[in-house]
Structure formats: C-alpha cells, structure tokens
Amino acid sequence: MPALAISPTNFVLLSAVLFFIGLFGALTRKNAIAVLMCIELMLNAVNINLIAFSRFVTPQLFTGQIFAIFVITVAAAEVGVGLAIIINIYRHRLSVNLDDFDWLKW
Amino acid sequence: MTSIFQVGAFWLISAAIIFTAILVVASKQLVHMVLWLAVCFISIASLYFLLDADYLALVQIMVYAGAVSIMVIFGVMLTQKPDIKECLLFNNQLKLATLVVIVLLALTGGMTYRADWFVSGGTVPADTIAYIGQLLLSKYVIPFEVAAVLLLVALIGAIVLAKEVKPGARSRD
Amino acid sequence: MYHAWLIPLLPALAFACISLFTKQWKWLSATLSIGAMVSGFIIASFVVAGVLQHPELINHPLVYTIRWLSMPGFIVNVGIQLDPLSAMMLFMVTLIASLIQIYSLGYMRGEKGFSVFFAYMSLFGASMLLLVASANLLELFVAWEGVGVCSYLLIGFYNHKISARQAAKKAFITTRIGDTGLLLGLLALQLIFGTLSISSLSQQIPQYQNIPLLITVAVLFFLGPIGKSGQFPLHVWLPDAMEGPTPVSALIHAATMVIAGVYLVGRVLFMFHSVPPVMELVAWVGGFTAIFAATIAVTQREIKRILAYSTVSQIGYMMMALGVGSLTAGFFHLWTHAFFKALMFLGAGSVLTGLHHKADVWEMGGLIKKMPITAITFVIGGLAIAGIPPFAGFWSKGDILDATLASGHVALFVIGAFTAFLTALYIWRMIFLAFFGKENPENHPKESPAVMTIPLIILAVFATVGGLIGTPWGDLWGRYIHFGTYVAPVANWPLMIGDTLLGALGIFTAWVFYCKDEEKVKAKALAKQFNGLYTLLYNKYYIDEIYMWFNHTMVDGVGRLLYLFDIYVVDGIVNGFGAFTLAAGAGLRVFQTGRLQNYALVFFLGVLAVAVLLAFTGPQATLLLGGVR
Questions:
Q1: Do C593 and A106 lie within an 8 Å CB cutoff?
Q2: Facing B110 at nearest CB: one of C597, C608, C625
Q3: Interchain CB contact of B18 with A (< 8 Å)
Q4: How far is CA C186 from CA B95, C139, C197, C279, in A?
C-alpha cells in the first residue's frame, strides 16, 4: 500500500503533479516572468523524478543525480538568459504581458 | 523504505511542495510568487535529503533558492510597471489548458499507479560527495566541461542582451 | 443508259465553275448552268428510252456503285439505281429545271446576283438529281440535305429583305426537325440490317419479323417527308418560302424539292408496306393535309400564297395515294402536278413581273386583255388542276380517288372528293379575280418577253397531254411504275364522271361569286357572314402563332431555366470552391495568433492525443491500464 511504504510510484506521482501544476501555470499566466517561474517548477519536477529513480533503481551508480546536476546547471543558465531577453523586450515595448508578444504572426 | 518517520516525512514534504507550487501559480503579485517559489525549492531540497542525495540538496538550495530566486527578483524589479497589480491573472486559454492538464495528469497518474516499478534494493554509498566528484571528473568529464562552457556562454549572452544602449551609441563593428 | 451518272454530275460541275471562275460574266454563267441541265435532259431522255426497252428493270433495278466508305461493320457504296421510277424522275426533273432556268433568264434580268442565282440553281439541280438516282439511303440523305441547303440559299436570295431571311431560316429549321427523324430512322436501319443499300434493304425488310421495331423506324423515317414535303404539322415553312424569286418557287417548292419526300416514301414503300399501321398514318396525314391546306387557300389573297397552299394540298393527295398502297397513282399525280404547278407558278411570276411585284389578287383584274399568253396558259393549268378531262390532272386525280375507294378507305375518299371541289374553287377564284373581270386602272401590265412565255407554252402542252400516258386504255404508266403485281386498270365511268362534275362545280361556284358578280358583292357578304370561320382560315388556323408561342415559352423558357441553373448552380459551385477556400483560410487563421502560450497549448494537445492513442491502442496498453482497451 503506497501510503505505508514509499516506492517509486509515490515519487513519480509527486513529480507528475508538480510538473502539471507548472505546465498549467506556463500555459495560462500572462506575465512573462511568471511563466519563467513555472518553467522552473517543471524542471524541478523532472529533477525529483531523476533522483527518485537514481535512489531506487541504480543507488550505486548515481546516474540520476549526475543528470540532475546538469539539469540544474542548464536551468540556471536558462533563467539568466531568459530574464535578459525579457528585460530587453521590456525596454522596447514597455510591457511584459505575453499577450502583447504576437510578432510570430508576421 | 518503510520507516514511519520516512513515510511521515515524505507525506509532509509532498504536501508542502504541492501547496507552495499551487500558491506560486495562483499568486496575484509577482513578488509573492517568487517567495513561494523559494519555499518550494527548499521543500524540494528536503525531499532530496530524504532520498539520500545530500550533495544535490545542497546544490538545490544554493543555486535555486539562492541564485535563481534572486535573479527572478531582479527581473521583477527591472520590469515593474507602476501599477503592478494585474487586473486579470490568467489569459484566455484557461479553460482549455485546465482540461488538457487534468486529462494528462489523469492519464499519467493512472499509468504510474499501475506500473510495476523496478526496485533494485541496493544501498547508497556513505560518502556521496566524494563519489559524485570522482564521477564528474572521470566518467562524466565531457558533459562537465561542456556545462562550464555553457555557463560562460550564457553569462556573456545575458550581459550582451541586457546591456543598456546609450542614446547616440555607435553600432558595433 | 449506262451514263446516267453524268446527269447529276454536269450541274455539279456547272456550279463549281460558276462559283469559282465565271461569277463576273453573267451570260456565261447562265449559259453554263442551262447547258448543263439541258444536256442532262438529253441524257435522261435516252435513259428513259433505254428503260422502256428493258421492262425487267421494274423488279430488278440496274445498280452500279462505287465504294465510298469502308470501315469494319459499315460499308457504303454510292451510285446510281435505274428503274422506271428513277428514270421518270430524272426525265421530269431535268425537263422542268431546264425550262425554269430558261425562264429565269428573263425573270432575273437586272437582278443583283444573277450569276450566283444560276450557281445555286445548278447546285440544286445536282442535288435533286442525285437524290432521285441514288442507290444508297445515305447518299440519298446527303442529297436530301443538299436540296435543303439550296432551298435555304434560294429562299433567302433577296437577303436585303428581312422577311426573306426569316423565311429561309424557318424553312431550314422546320425541315431540320423532320430530318432528325429521318436520320434516326436511317441509323436504326443501319444498326438492324447492316446496310443502307436500297436494293439489299428491299430484299431484307419484307422478311423482318420484329414488327413493332419496324413501326418505330418507319414512323421516324416518315418524319423526314413530313418536313420536306410540307405536310401537317411541319407545313408552316412552305407558304413563307414564297419570299424567294418565283422561279425558285416554281422549281423547288412546286415541282421538285417538295416532292422529294413523296419520292422517298415511294422508294422505301416496301418498308412501309410491311407495317400497315404506318401506311394508314401516311394516308391520313396526306388526306388531312390536303383538306387542311385547301380550306386555307380559299381565303388567301396573295397569288403565290394561294399556289403554295395548293402545293401543300396536292402533295397531301400524293401521300394519301402512297398510303393506300398505290405507287402508280401517287407518282402519276406527282408527274402531272409538276407540270401544271410549275406552269402556274411561272405564270404568276409573269404576272408579278408585269405588275411590278404587286401580289394581291384583289388588286388585279382583267389581265387577259394585256397578257394573253400568260392568261391562256394559266387557264390551261387551272383546268388541269381542277380535274377536267382530257387535261392531265383529271387522269391522275382520278387514279388517286379510284385507288382510295378500291382499298376501302371511304372516309379518305370523301375527304379527297371534297378537296377536289375546293381545289377547283380556289384556283378558279384566283383566275377569275386576276385575269377576268374589270381591269384595275392602276395597273399597266404588258406581256412578258419570249424567253419567259415559251417555257409557259411548253409546260402548257405537257399539262394538256401529260396525262394521256396513264389513261385506263393502254396504260403505259402503270405498266412500268407499280408496286407489287400489276393490275390493269378498268375504266371506272361513274367515278370519272363524278370527278368531272366536282371540278366543274368548283369552277361554276367560283364563276358565280367572282366573275359574274362584277362587284363581288356576294363573296364579300359571305365572308362577313361567316366572319369567325373566315378569320380562322385567313390566319391559317393560327398554327404559326401557336408554334411561335411554343417556341417562346418552352424553348426560351427552358433556355432561361438552364441559364439560371448555370448562373446559380454551376457558377455557385465554382465560386463556392473559392469561397470555401477563403472561409477555410479565415477559420484556420484563428490558430495563428503569434502567441507562444497558444502554440504551447497546441503542443500539449498533441501530446495528449498521442498519449491517448498509445495508451489505448499501443502494445503495452493492457498492461498499463489494467486491461482497458
């Protein structure tokens, strides 16, 4: 019974819920920075998944943890560049509302 | 793991994670979002402790709760409009997104619940940090170096993108 | 006799020469045309002489052909078929055509298009001669169309007059309706019997068993003669065809083209004979047309129109004779009718020339004083058509009535007899009004030149003695031209006397109303008394108006309907494609918002779709979802 014994199922479920919460936010929030934060949530969900599998499937090899380290690295770099872009856009358009960024149409 | 403490800890931490995540998504003010996000990160770090991944928990706290959150606060600061309060929180595809998310969640959850996960039953080595260091510099040295280069590039890129353009500046050659 | 193929060829060559080379030299063109036709007449005389010496040709005609078309399953041999019938027709057509062309030298003098006229006349002659001599029904059909074209060209010869152009169109279109039936009949014959050669068909058709099919074919076939010979209901073109020059009316619409239908029925009489119901149809169509046209002719005023309706009526007689089974009587009347009708038409042309084309008989009068030759020849023609012995019409009309009575068609006999009375009445009404009585002081007629009166005299001679070859005593005609076994005629004295009396009664009635009564008071009073009937007859039973109404509502109506269909349905479909594309584009454009989050949502919708697909149909599905498929 999952309530009384922790198995990968629990962690994967948790990871899924967190991921979909993040997805929901990424799809529906108007502010660009809010979307960025929700993307971070999604990346963290993935990390939970990876580390859980590392713990239960290959505890000796640390494969998942190494993977998670690199995910964190990339996520940090991505937040930096993303914020720089948003600031740049804000300077020109004076708005960070994603509804206003519709230049992909043309 | 069937120890009552671990089980209890798991459920507690999970509740915290979920709760703060929901609050992140549903906050009206950006700064509140960031704060709740930080709490979420810390909860996730404690989950890592539960999973015997102490080095990663520390990295999580340092990078995410420390650096990333601050970066986002800076971003919020630099793009603030006088009337920061948003009139409408969600855009117009709220209902469809909700539907998609719930269905996908149901599907994933269902499949996860019924799946027979493989548990190897081994134990984690005691000295994780040394072991990770060894791995990083022997087996995974190339991704390690590439990640370093990636960070350098990201740094430079962010600087270039966010640089302030003075009026009348010459164009770069 | 073996050179009969020259007879159609010479006028065709004349036509080619005139239209290509000699159009500017009028007298040369005329000479070419007349020369060709007269040579044809000479050859035809020799042909007749040859046929008279070979009586076996009656049942086994001399046929010589060349291969024209040869495809698998469809072989057409064209050539000449000589038997007494075709020889007689060749002789008559060439004779009358020659006389009329000589007459045209005088009538058409000074007209614009003199050479073209003779070119058309030659072409017509060639087509008509080919028609009567042809050995194959397809060849006959080609010649049939040829005479139709020439009729169109010649009716519309005065193409500056809009009435002439419309009359030409009307003639062509009305005969076209008949020709469609004829063509369908021809196709059916080719499909059923595999050949269109007249001699082969005459062997095969009498043995054919599928009678209902043959009835359909025969009825379709008969539509052609109805159109071309101006029988009811396709008679409407003939009176309007009088817009053409008078020699044209004489040649084409009295003596030769209109009898092409009669000739065709006679040629394929073996087919009609196998289907008695169709023979009845032919007889009744002929009889009805005869009386129908005669009643209209009694009220008409223009001299040529009276003669036109008379032609329709007389051809009705011929059809009636063929319908009751007597090839002899039908063609005898054709022979005599050609002479006296051509004579009367040429006489009318002479009158018109003298009076500068004034055509209403009520405005003429006493022309005999100034135009004696015309008048006397016209009177001879009138006596012939009225059926007074010993003129030609008496013998031929008597033969028809005799045949009708002998075959038991009493109703048709009564119709025929009454029509004979009416015929004499309207012809002599016209003669008395035009040639006798008081002169109209406005007219200054003078006799026509010799080139016009000599053909009149020659035709008058034929109208007088032409019938003598078919008298019940020494029946030269019947011995050569008959269908089936030959039955020597017996002089039916009561009938002959009755005939004469009918004709005399008609002449007497006309004299009473139109000659004795100087002011024609009684005639006018009679017209006023029966005003309704008079108006109906004068307006030709309003048949033309009915046809025009039908044309406007039905044909134009259907045209309008189809036009609307085209505009709304067809164009609608085509435009609909364009509009659909536009609408689809407008609809799909909604998805191109340019916004990232919309695109991301679509991503995940896709993921959802794939997940659902794999979850419920993938190979691991049963495992993952606990057996849900």
A1: no
A2: C625
A3: yes
A4: 78, 11, 11, 18
Measure in Å the smallest separation between the Cα of C629 and chain A Cα atoms. 23
Strand partners, C78: C66
Q: What is the pTM of this model?
A: 0.69
By 3-state DSSP, what share of chain B in percent is helix, strand and coil, each rounded to 5? 70, 0, 30
Chains touching chain C, criterion 3+ CB pairs below 8 Å: A, B
Report the DSSP beta bridge partners of residue A31.
A97
Residue type, C123: L
Asked if B93 and C597 come within 8 Å (Cβ–Cβ), the reply is: yes
- Kindly state whether residue A18 falls inside one of the protein's structural domains: yes
The pLDDT > 70 percentage for chain C reads 97
Describe chain C by its helix, strand, coil percentages, rounded to 5.
Answer: 75, 5, 20
Whether A14 is in a domain gets the answer: yes
Contact C419, C313 (CB under 8 A): yes
Q: Domain B1-91: give its CATH architecture.
A: Up-down Bundle (1.20)
- CATH number, residue A39: 1.10.287.3510
Q: What pLDDT was estimated at residue C623?
A: 61
Write out pLDDT tens, residues C166-225.
899 988 989 999 999 999 999 998 888 888 888 888 888 888 877 888 888 899 999 999
User: pLDDT tens across B37-78, in order?
Assistant: 999 999 999 999 999 899 999 999 999 999 999 999 999 988
**HSE (CB half, 13 Å, CA atoms) of C564?**
5
In a domain? residue A38:
yes
Q: What is the complex's ipTM, to 2 decimals?
A: 0.92
Average pLDDT over residues C589-614: 88
Q: Test A72 with B60 for CB contact under 8 angstroms.
A: yes
> Which residues fall within 8 angstroms of residue A43, CB to CB, at 6 or more apart?
A71, A75
* Residue A101 included in any domain: no
Hey, of B52, B68, B166, which one would you mutate to test binding to chain A, going by the most A CBs within 10 A of its CB? B68
- Show residues of chain B in contact with C623, CB under 8 Å: 114
Distance of alpha carbon C443 from alpha carbon C357, whole angstroms: 11
B89, B90, B98, B111: which to substitute to probe chain C, counting the most C Cβ within 10 Å? B111
Q: Are the beta carbons of A79 and B71 separated by less than 8 Å? A: yes
Distance CA A42, CA A22 (A): 5
Gyration radius from chain C CA atoms? 33
Chain B contact partners (≥3 CB pairs within 8 A): A, C
Measured between beta carbons, which residues in chain A are less than 8 angstroms from residue B52? 55, 59
B-C C-beta contacts closer than 8 Å = 31
Q: Taken in order C15, C17, C23, C24, is the CA torsion positive or negative?
A: negative
C339 compared with C612, residue with greater pLDDT: C339
Q: Cα(B42)–Cα(C541) distance, rounded to whole angstroms?
A: 112
C608 inside 8 A of chain A by CB: no
**H helices within C436-570, ranges in order?**
450-465, 476-480, 493-511, 521-529, 531-538, 543-550, 556-564
> What per-residue confidence (pLDDT) applies to C629?
46
**Residue C100 CA, distance from chain mean position:** 19
Task: Look up the domain containing A20 and give its range.
Answer: 8-95
Which position has the higher pLDDT, C516 or C611?
C611
Facing A83 at nearest CB: one of B44, B71, B113: B71
Which parts of chain A sit beneath pLDDT 50? 1
Give chain A's domain count. 1
Smallest Cβ–Cβ distance between B104 and the set C597, C598, C608 belongs to C608
Q: Is C609 on the interface with B (CB under 8 A)?
A: no
